[in-house]
Amino acid sequence: MDQKKENACRFNQAASAMCPRIKYLLLQLPEAVRAETSEIRLRVNKPISLWSSGSTWFLTENGVTLLPERGIRAEKADIYESFRILCSYSVYSHQEQICEGYVTLHGGHRVGLGGTAVMHGNMITGMKDITSLNIRVARQMNGCADQLLQMVGNLNGGLLLAGPPASGKTTLLRDIARQLSSGVFDRINKVTVVDERGEICGACQGEYGNDLGPCCDVLDGFPKATGMLFALRSLSPEYIICDELGTQQETDALVQSVNAGTAVIASIHAGSFSELTARAQARALLQSGAFARVALLERGKPGRVKALVKAGDLLAQTGGGCVSDFCGGSGGLSASA
């Protein structure tokens, strides 16, 4: 199956979690539209929108339009029914994810939720009156990590992927895991993916919706810090891969990984190196010694690297210069040896 058809099938899988009225319209869209769409967004009494590589389309009875006033609107009943379907009619069983603002579907598709928080003291214990759904279509894009892996060469020192939302961080991690585990990149390696939200592996009832190679173990649903330590104790990985680091506990687990001789490949939200190093917790990640290099990704097609720098150089630059000096030009690529 070529990439276009594969992407369209992934869209179909994600769209199937919608209520019948909207699901029917989504599945009738041309293959080219389904293949390009990365987000499906429903908001109460607002036109249903599709996001694709920076463009926004609006769903109509006959396809899509660029004019919001011509798009069909999601009714409150559409969102309520869709929410029940994506929770497999068991909201309670998804309560832990809902408290974090999302639900993960089979295949790794993540549905972001908008609505009203249910509070108990200072803790969010649930959500009610769901007013919006953002279905992020997860894709398996074999080969999207080729350029980055060729640039980095040796991953033994660890790699941190920084990028804004929709820059393909998770898709890139998925392909790196596959290539390391299957020997596409260098030799076959023992890999453990700590997949707290089930997006990398696309797990559903013990089966994985994405190909992570023959020598990859998955810790699905484990908090990242706990999962990293569990992997070190039990799975003897050569590489640990996880998504969206940020807490102090995760930084501490990184240090233990380094001490155990295990390389870590992870991602973090940041639209620029300046944004990355302005955050104290991000600086702590860089100072942990777990990442020899940092790759800055561009929004759009997964695998587009704007710049690649040494973590040590980045830290040194923040102490006495302008971080933007490291950034490549638009669409360009810079690297440090």
Write the layout of secondary structure elements.
Elements: H1 3-15, H2 20-27, H3 31-36, E1 39-43, E2 49-52, E3 55-60, E4 63-65, H4 76-86, H5 95-99, E5 102-104, E6 110-120, E7 123-136, H6 146-152, E8 159-163, H7 169-182, E9 191-195, E10 203-204, E11 207-208, E12 216-220, H8 224-234, E13 239-242, H9 248-259, E14 263-269, H10 273-277, H11 280-287, E15 293-297, E16 305-310, H12 311-320
Parallel strand pairs: 8-14, 8-15, 9-12, 9-13, 13-14
Antiparallel strand pairs: 1-2, 1-7, 2-3, 3-4, 5-6, 6-7, 10-11, 15-16
Q: How is the largest sheet built, in terms of strand order?
A: 4-3-2-1-7-6-5
Radius of gyration: 20 Å
How far do the termini sit from each other?
37 Å
Low-confidence stretches: 320-337
Number of helices, where a helix is a run of at least 4 consecutive DSSP H or I residues: 12
Structure class: alpha/beta
